[in-house]
Structure formats: structure tokens, C-alpha cells
Amino acid sequence: MFSINKAASVFPINESYLSFLRYIVAGVIALGVHLSVLIFLVELFGVAKPLASTAGLLASLPVNYLFQHFYVFRAKGRIITNFSKYLMLTAATAILNAVLMWLMTTRTSIPYPAAQIMITATIFVINFFGNRAFTFGGGERGLEEIKK
Predict the structure, then answer these.
(1) 31: number of CA atoms within 13 Å, CB side?
(2) Could you give the CA distance from residue 23 to residue 19 in angstroms, rounded to a whole number?
(3) Is residue 97 within 8 Å of residue 123, measured between CB atoms?
(4) Percentage of the chain lying above the pLDDT 70 cut
(5) Which of 12, 126, 128, 137 has the fewest Cβ atoms surrounding its Cβ within 10 A?
(6) How many whole angstroms from its chain centre is CA 65?
(7) Distance (Å, rounded) from C-alpha 129 to C-alpha 92?
(8) In terms of pLDDT, which residue wins out, 8 or 14?
(9) Contacts 24+ apart (CB under 8 A), 93-100
């Protein structure tokens, strides 16, 4: 079975890149949860797309957090402390997600699942660096790591 860590032992990879690869794996899994809830709510119950998108994001939260804490960043801090920081960052990006979903579904003809994937790609980058520096990296120490 393929493992990012096994690949890193064969092909030397900087830990920063390795954590980003793990972040991609975790993100794809969380996106699957997000999109499943979004499509389920819109198609079966007629829920407004921005609201359904927000519900999908909320459903993916615990999955994404646990992957990030234990697998991506291998955090050493307390779970509850890191989760509080994670929620702060996620609240900001959840608002951004809802606003972008509203704009893309009311102002363009882009299908809502494609819009969600584009929005997620944008937020993905913001969240990686934010979580690495703030949530799991320990503030200034984490910011210094990014600059290397």
C-alpha cells in the first residue's frame, strides 16, 4: 500500500513538503465529506446552496481537524487548545466560503459542485499556512518555520 512516509524514505523530501502532501490527502477526504453533505442537502431537501455548503463544511470539521492534528502536523499540544485555535481560523474561512458560494452561484453560471471545489482550493491554501503557523505551529515559532 502506498504511504507518503514510505515515499519520503525513498525520495528525500523536506518535512514542510511532506506535511503539505499529508495535508492534501486529509483535505481530499474532508472535501469528500463536505461535497457529500452539500449535494445531499441541495438535491434531496432543496436547501439553499450557501447554507448547504456551510453545513458540509461543519460536517467535515471533525474529520479534517483529527487528520490535521494527528497525521498532517503531528501536533504535540493539547487537543482542546489546538481545537479552539482551529475553530477560530475555520470560522473566518467558513464566512469566506459562504460569501464566495453565494457570489459564485448567484452571479455566475458555474455549477455549485464545481464552485465549491474552486472555493475549497482557495481556502485550502489559507488554511494550510494558518493552521501550520497558528493552530499547530505555536504562533511566532510557526511563522518562522514558514519563512524557512
Answers:
(1) 18
(2) 6
(3) yes
(4) 84
(5) 12
(6) 8
(7) 14
(8) 14
(9) 93/123, 93/126, 93/127, 93/130, 94/54, 94/57, 94/58, 96/123, 96/126, 97/53, 97/54, 97/57, 97/123, 98/50, 98/51, 98/53, 98/54
